[in-house]
Known about the structure:
The protein is an all-alpha fold. It has helices at residues 2-12, 15-19, 22-36.
Amino acid sequence: MRIKVFVLQHKRHGFVAQHYPISLQEAMNEALMVARK
């Protein structure tokens, strides 16, 4: 849960987009979708 909140907070500031490749960002998005189910 902590990681989920951490990723969401940094996404809002564009941190993920600037410091991580798109492939990793997409992988995180899939992980978030799976966690929601």
